[in-house]
């Protein structure tokens, strides 16, 4: 094969690869871009035109103003933030504790406990909804943000992720710590936990996103509109007899932007290997 | 996610049945404080997604009621439509339902059947003759005596159509179809001219299949409450739909799409005919100004006997309310002729009170599509009924629509599809 031909093939291969990447990009970004452009469109523009017109001809922030005017976006956003941050913290703390116990400690019924945690992951929420609601009521948590957090304060998924994170750590490190006289708590807190930061970031992001997106449970447990979270609150943007897609899209953007910010802030942890920092070389 | 929600909801309802029957958590606790306080009786009034568009109307009406009844204090809460049924189930289990609840017949039915609501034929017997009979009957439950809701606002369909596309297809833009036969003939002609750029109609099976059958004189259930929509007339109807689909009168991808997609297709100028609620006129105007300018309005599509379909909203009072009398009084006030008429003037709804429907406001059209829609739909109301039986819930609907889709694709014959649908519907609802 001549060098020229090889170069041509390399370029062709690269072109195909980039084209494929572009297709995936369009598929992934397309709907988001549509929402974004809709939220910026002026009143005179058609939304559902075909083919879709992504460039707003009369760009305006009116829709954001109207969304913020119709529903107390800041208040709902703050409620959502409280719920999501609380949920991320509790999932990391308790998920790590439970995960560590399941990964490192030997006790009777360990497998059974683990199976029970996994089991909670497959039970659909609607099935236990009524009993969870009755429990929250008995605890006096109805219509409070704490009541929103409680059912997902530690999820089976968080425990599972943490357990797997701890299992991937080399046993030798902890054995060394044990020889140095570290107790169980110190091994957990000083040795194991700092080594699974990547996993914790994943748990934090997942629980934050789940809590932020949760719709049904907050709607059920909250009764005063002032306490609504953002996902419930922005429902008010689409009335029964009207639906201005532009304002709904603006509300959606307001709800999504914090998630994007969080993800980009934490993404370097997100993709970091789990077995980092311990036994190198 | 979508597919399993009805099933899960059923499980939730089963849980509710247990909670209500076994421990009676709610009922027992709530009855004690009755008539103890000497201050005004406080009632909670919960509506379905009326905020913020109708905040002014509701607040004004509530205030007028309160000033006429100093001893009753009304607190208005509004919840989103989505998830409302789940919230109700949970609230009912905990015995903390609001005193006056705004529901449609299908949301209300499972709770009505469990005896959660006050029977208004005995508690408010004088109210019944005021309302359009079809609306009052919408809150009855097969096998139970009485009716459980004050009919509130009504909505009904009109036929919106794109005059520009009518002209392009060589049709008279001032002559919309009025019967099912005309609708399909028109749709065929338009699709022929559209050559894939635009079509006449969207099948929107989940939205219209059952009402179209009822208009053709085929009720979903027979007198005894068993599913019976596999009659020869129904078979002919499905065969007609299948022919339309196979001849290309419907877009290929429209088969599995729902009403929301139909709405988008109309706003994109991809379909010429759009039978839907007049409230969609506003939505089209907001989202697709150019299509709205070309939109004309025709009467609701009917069958040979001219019966029209309507959707009913109602106000229900749960038995667990500690201030039942006040709640009934308020519900009656909200749904009376004057207040419903005022509501109808704010938006594209119709009053369910016979007297209010005769108001001159509905007799003439100001020439706008909205005015035309109001006139046409009000005229249809006297001969209208709620054609969606409450037994036809999401689970049944999903299955029936699935079978009809197979028939349209030619995988099943129309007869096979309907026979199978009737049998499986019986298994789902146990009737």
TrEMBL record, chain A:
The chain crosses the membrane at residues 18-36, 81-103, 112-133, 145-167, 188-212, 247-266. Keywords: Cell membrane, Membrane, Transmembrane, Transmembrane helix, Transport. Residues 77-266 form the ABC transmembrane type-1 domain. It comes from the Bacteria. One of its GO terms (cellular component) is plasma membrane. It is found in: Cell membrane. InterPro entries: MetI-like (IPR000515), MetI-like_sf (IPR035906). It is a multi-pass membrane protein. The keyword Transmembrane helix applies. Pfam families: BPD_transp_1. One of its GO terms (biological process) is transmembrane transport. Belongs to the binding-protein-dependent transport system permease family. This is Carbohydrate ABC transporter permease.
UniProtKB/TrEMBL annotation, chain B:
Keywords: Cell membrane, Lipoprotein, Membrane, Palmitate, Signal. Residues 1-22 form the signal peptide. CDD domains: PBP2_TMBP_like. InterPro entries: Bact_solute-bd_prot1 (IPR050490), SBP (IPR006059). This is Sugar ABC transporter substrate-binding protein.
């Amino acid at each position: 094969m001549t060098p020229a031909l090889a170069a041509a093939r390399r370029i062709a291969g690269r072109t195909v690869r980039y084209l494929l990447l572009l297709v995936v990009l369009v598929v992934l970004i397309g709907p988001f871009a549509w929402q974004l452009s809709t939220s910026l469109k002026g009143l005179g523009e058609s939304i559902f035109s075909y083919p879709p017109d992504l460039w707003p001809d009369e760009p305006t922030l009116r829709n954001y103003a109207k969304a913020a005017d119709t529903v107390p976006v800041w208040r709902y956003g703050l409620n959502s933030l409280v719920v999501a941050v609380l949920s991320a913290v509790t999932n990391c703390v308790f998920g790590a504790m439970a995960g560590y116990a399941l990964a490192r400690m030997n006790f009777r019924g360990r497998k059974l406990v683990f199976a029970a945690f996994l089991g909670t992951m497959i039970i659909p929420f609607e099935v236990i909804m009524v009993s969870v609601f009755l429990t929250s009521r008995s605890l006096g948590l109805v219509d409070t943000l704490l009541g929103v957090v409680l059912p997902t304060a530690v999820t089976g998924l968080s425990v599972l992720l943490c357990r797997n994170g701890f299992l991937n750590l080399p046993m030798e490190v902890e054995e060394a710590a044990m020889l140095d006289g570290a107790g169980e708590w110190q091994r957990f807190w000083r040795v194991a936990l700092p080594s699974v930061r990547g996993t914790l970031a994943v748990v934090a992001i997942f629980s934050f996103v789940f809590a932020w997106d949760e719709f049904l449970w907050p709607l059920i447990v909250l009764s005063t509109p002032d306490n609504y979270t953002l996902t419930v609150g922005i429902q008010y943007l689409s009335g029964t007899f009207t639906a201005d897609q532009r304002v709904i899209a603006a509300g959606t953007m307001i709800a999504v932007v914090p998630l994007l910010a969080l993800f980009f802030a934490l993404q370097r942890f997100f993709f970091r290997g789990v077995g980092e920092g311990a036994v190198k070389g | 996610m979508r597919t399993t929600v009805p099933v899960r909801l059923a499980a939730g309802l089963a849980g509710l049945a247990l909670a209500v029957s076994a421990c009676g958590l709610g009922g027992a606790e709530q009855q004690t404080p009755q008539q103890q306080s000497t201050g005004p009786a406080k009632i909670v009034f919960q509506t379905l997604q009326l905020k913020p568009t109708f905040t002014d109307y509701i607040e004004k009406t509530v205030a007028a009621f309160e000033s006429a009844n100093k001893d009753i204090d009304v607190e208005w809460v509004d919840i989103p439509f989505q998830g409302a049924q789940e919230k109700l189930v949970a609230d009912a289990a905990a015995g903390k339902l609001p005193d006056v609840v705004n529901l449609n017949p299908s949301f209300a039915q499972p709770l009505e059947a469990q005896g959660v609501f006050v029977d208004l034929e005995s508690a408010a017997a004088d109210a019944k003759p005021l309302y359009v009979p079809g609306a009052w009957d919408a809150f009855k439950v097969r096998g139970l005596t009485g009716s459980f809701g004050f009919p509130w606002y009504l909505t009904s369909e009109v036929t919106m159509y794109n005059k520009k596309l009518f002209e392009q297809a060589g049709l008279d833009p001032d002559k919309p179809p009025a019967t099912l036969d005309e609708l399909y003939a028109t749709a065929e002609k338009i699709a022929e001219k559209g050559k894939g750029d635009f079509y006449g109609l969207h099948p929107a099976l989940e939205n219209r299949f059952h009402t179209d059958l009822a208009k053709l004189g085929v009720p979903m259930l027979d007198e005894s409450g068993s599913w019976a929509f596999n009659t020869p007339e129904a078979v002919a109807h499905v065969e007609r739909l299948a022919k339309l689909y196979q001849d290309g009168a419907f877009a290929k991808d429209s088969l599995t799409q729902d009403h929301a997609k139909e709405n988008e297709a109309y706003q994109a100028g991809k379909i010429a005919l759009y039978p839907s609620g007049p409230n969609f006129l506003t939505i089209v105007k907001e989202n697709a100004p150019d299509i709205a300018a070309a939109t004309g309005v025709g009467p609701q599509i009917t069958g040979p006997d001219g019966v029209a379909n309507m959707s009913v909203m109602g106000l229900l009072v749960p038995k667990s309310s500690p201030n039942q009398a006040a709640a009934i009084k308020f519900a009656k006030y909200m749904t009376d002729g004057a207040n419903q008429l005022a509501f109808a003037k704010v938006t594209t709804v119709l009053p369910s009170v016979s007297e209010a429907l005769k108001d001159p406001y509905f007799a003439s059209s100001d020439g706008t599509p909205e005015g035309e829609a109001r006139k046409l739909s009000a005229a249809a109301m006297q001969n209208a009924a709620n054609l969606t039986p409450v037994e036809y819930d999401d689970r049944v609907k999903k299955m029936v629509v699935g079978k009809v889709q197979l028939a349209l694709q030619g995988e099943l014959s129309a007869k096979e599809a309907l026979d199978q649908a009737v049998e499986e519907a019986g298994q789902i609802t146990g009737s």
